Fold these 3 entries.
Entry 1:
Amino acid sequence: MEIKEQQPTQEQRETIKKLHNDGVRKAKISAYIFGGVLCFCTTFVLRLKAFAFIGAYHDLLNNILLAGTFSFGILVLSRFVQSQIAKGSLEKGLLYNLVQFTRLVTFVIIIFIFISFLNANWYTAAVSLGLISLLLGFALQTPISSLIGWFYIVMRGPFKVGDRIQVGSFNGDVVEINFLDTTLWEFAGNLMTSDLPSGRLIRFPNSLVFQNQVYNYSWQKYPLVWNEISFYITYKSDLDWVERKVKAITMQQLDAETKAHVQDMRNEISATPVDDIDIEEFPFVNFRIHENNWVEVLLIYIVNPKHSSYMRSKIVKAVIAELLKEPEKVAFVSEGS
């Protein structure tokens, strides 16, 4: 059950389309620059004697115009940042959220600019803003942490829509990443003993990425994981023959894409500072002695994490069927022993 990338809504598509439209972008930037220059020039006009009749409102109007000048400058900078974000390779849903976040920050900065310019006492304004920020920080601690967590997810990319991940005790495929929370389509969980989807959705605050380890089973550079299957045979079995047979059967069941990733895995391991792992042989077959005097055959192979249950079942049926054809080469542990 594959999960495709997060599909944008109509509003998101329209917003992204406008950001890619050079004509719209240049028109808005030109309008912001014109507004800023107009406000700045008007401050000089106010100094003329012709406007002496406004009296006490002179300083207020002057401060409003100065605040407008700085605000238009912030809008130009914000529009430039949004256009750069739109050029990125992020999924459209995340790209839209990042643009909206930029607009939110721009709006907050403009409000602070106007509060600062309209307050005659800068010390009082600074104290007021500090107290407001402190109160909002306590009242909105979790949402703010989640918003920062969302920004971390977008910039650092510990996971993206479609990845199979584990965060704390939550296991699932990522279906949506929003400002405040992430939605998973649960696999396994307490309803299932396999790694198939349980049918439930999990929604957790983004702040959890700072409090828990994040396991990503769909790493872009190497989107496969190791899996293993074990079964028991007797000491009378031909272990060398069993090893060769199990390897050959497993290779027949694995698809071409999985086999091709073996070389990618070798390249990734060789590029890391850890000791190289000998993976010339693939898949692996290891033998262990069981406490009841059996031999445990442990088959280790790589698989797409979303296909592991299907592939495990496929390999088990093929291996058991082939080994049963050669009773003189391999003997299974008898039932009930």
Entry 2:
Amino acid sequence: MRVERAAGGVVVRERNGAREVLLIDDQYGKVSFPKGHLEPGESWEQAALREVQEETGVIARIAGDIGRVEYVIERGGEPVRKQVRLFLMVAEDGSEPVHQAEEVNGAYFLPWDEARRRHDERGYANWRFALQKADALLAWRVGRLEEAWRALGPDTPWDHLVAAWRDAEPVTRKLVDACREELAVTFPELRVPEPRSLHLPREVAHDALRAAIESTLLKPEASEIDVQNLCLEAVHHNLPMVCISPRHVPIAKRAVPGSGVRVCTVIGFPHGTQTVNAMRQEALEAIAAGADEIDMVGPIGALAEGDVWAYAQAVRAVVEVARLRFPSVPVKVILETSALGPDAVIKGALVSVAVGADFVKTSTGYHKAGARPADVTLMALAVAGSAGVKASGGIRTPAAARNLLRFGADRLGTSAALKLLDEA
């Protein structure tokens, strides 16, 4: 099916201490947000900025990603897949709206509450989540939570983490609710987990650290001897699981028989760029080789540009393969949280669990950052106890491990298992 793409923005400004929103009256008598087609060679963001300026005369800058809607229209007797993305944008000082495009009958800023009422009354149903999402993103931005909370590593002193979380918690919960509403509108056939009360940080039992460890060796240069030694180490120290590359699954299975150590492997690793059929085949081969669990890398690029439908398709394909075996093989979905905005982390977790994943996981260890408490909380609040959370990447101290467990992790992927235990 042919695809048409458009982009635009929910543009806000502060005027006399109050927040205002830019709306347009379109040619169909609807209240909407400025948006229009991507031109050849443009990015989503470039098109959004240009369209806002062309339709309203307002110059703005991008501050976040509101979301994406998709639907089918008919053009020339043929079906066309329409993809529309909206960004959160902030108007530059002095920009005043003057409608400039033929399809726009009016452009104006309204106070926030009045804009919400007008959009609820005369707006398009598939954007009814947009202002709620914008409100949550603005609260995240005003609170500087990317720097003050999300950037904190797991080795941050406990008192500092707790204080930062107390400041971030109301906004984090607001953002999770907004993402739920977004998916309810844009992907209504998806059954996202029901929201449940979850108190964080939580108490962690003394033996929780050992029980959570997945001793990991995923370096491409790892030898068969390295894998055998990892498995012997896990057996000797009574670790629950090893995580190794697909070609090493048979070696690992032979090294741990009767020990209780389970073998996990990865597919779509490390970037999630394989086709759906390739991931399905990788999963089939891993299960046939004896893998007890699968960690799959979701298509990171799809999630980064808001394509939750493609993301769901990839995860569902692997889950379906895992369920061919009885009992089914648990599937963990690696989001690569450091490549995503906080709302994309939430949506990735919600979509993954909705299509059957058993866990969501932070990182591959191959991106710019590993597990962070903030991302673990985003995932834990999203899945709401209906699935587990695995933190991985850069976990090298007992303090880091326990901090992540307290903020919602159930499993820990680490290449430093014995170091955690020796110092615990």
Entry 3:
Amino acid sequence: MRTRKGLCYPMVGAIGAGCSGLKRKRAAADSAPAIAGSRRRLPVDNPDMFDSLPDDLVLTILSKLCATASCPSDFTSVLLTCKRFNGLGLHSLVLQRASSKTFAVRAQNWSDSAHRFLKLCADAGNIEACYTLGMIRFYCQQNRGSGASLMAKAAMNSHAPSLYSLAVIQFNGSGGSKNDKDLRAGVALCARAAFLGHIDALRELGHCLQDGYGVRQNVAEGRRFLVQANARELAAVLSTSTAASLLSWTPHSGNNSGTTQSGAGARSTSAPAGCPLLSDFGCNVPAPEAHAANKFLSEWFAAQGGPQGSGLRLCSHAGCGRSETRKHEFRRCSVCGTVNYCSRACQALDWKLRHKADCAPLERWVDEDGDGVENDGVGEANGDVMAES
């Protein structure tokens, strides 16, 4: 195999001859009388074994390192080692295999160089980089067209988070007007993401079928999808190494959860501490870890003090980070009117994690424009009621 310098791998006999010659040189050097104050020097013609390594072997090593890096510094420190690593480390074959943790830069460390590196990964065909950069451009930099195109590029390669994010954009008409909503397209994208194993997409699809939102109503099929979402959530927790210490079983009894009667319906006053929808079945599990792109959005808007624009709001689910692109884009909780969500999946998760203990029915609540909006329903224990803003 030919290296970058045009050298070839030596034959077996040549290797043996070279080794024996090297031994004779070492023996002659050891037998030579030592001169006081002098330093022993290596032969000038001693080749650098690193330079003799072929490029394809170095690319394989760098690709493996880039795919298993736990943080961006694990890979950038290698690029600073030498000129050859810096050149081969930015090869498309290496960047294509980069994991999401390799370019998971914090929002406070965002810079032009981080943007260029993420764009290099996206141009190399890395679908995780396409999704992350697409989310950043669409929501943070307000570059809607470029961000949606990058997410669509990842979605065409069967990237489930990109499919679900595009579904949320279609449900809300993000980046356009209220008339730009395409509910049927959102349901189709959710169905594709759910088929690929995305839990939030499966949960969203179940709610759409239950409510007849963008698809013909089928309550039984919607409930079946919601049960499947809980089962996949449990399987994801059990697959972790610390599942035994994180998972506990507390069977529900008839008198262990109190309810408070208020208004036209009942509201549960007991909220499981730090557990998502699996608490419906008695399993207390930690909340799923948010994607690196959602973490970046949350940190970005926290540092900016909220979305840029008057009256724009963030999704109230802590693990989402999405912001409105126009006023009153997200839907509110029809009970209290104090929280808003980009999707039904975010509402269902936030209800079990936090909002169940804080939601208080109100007879009337006022929006930002000062117009009173009548409460069209009272939240049930599963938080399934949302109202248009």
